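Hello,

Our lab assistant flagged a job as stuck in the queue for most of the afternoon. It eventually completed. Since we weren't sure the result was trustworthy after the delay, we are filing this so someone can double-check. Below is the sequence as submitted and the structure that was eventually returned. Let us know if re-running is recommended.
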Amino acid sequence: MANRSNNNILVVPQARQGLEQLKYEVAQGLGIAIPQDGYYGYMTTRDTGAIGGHMVRRMVQIAEQQLSGLTR
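-- returned structure --
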């Protein structure tokens, strides 16, 4: 596959660093090593999907906690 650029556009660009940190934390928790060179071509789809799925779960959990704190 040819070099592929990241087409994801963040609504809040300042969140990029936080999302990267979350990705590494989730991967570490799952026992999956993220390549240091940033090339994911050697990772299995199952592993990258697991990281993304757990990231979404964590973000939803964080949002729910923040929302519940606002309604009290």
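-- support follow-up --
The delay was a queue issue, not a problem with the job. The result is valid. Helices lie at 16-30, 45-71. The chain has two helices and no strands.
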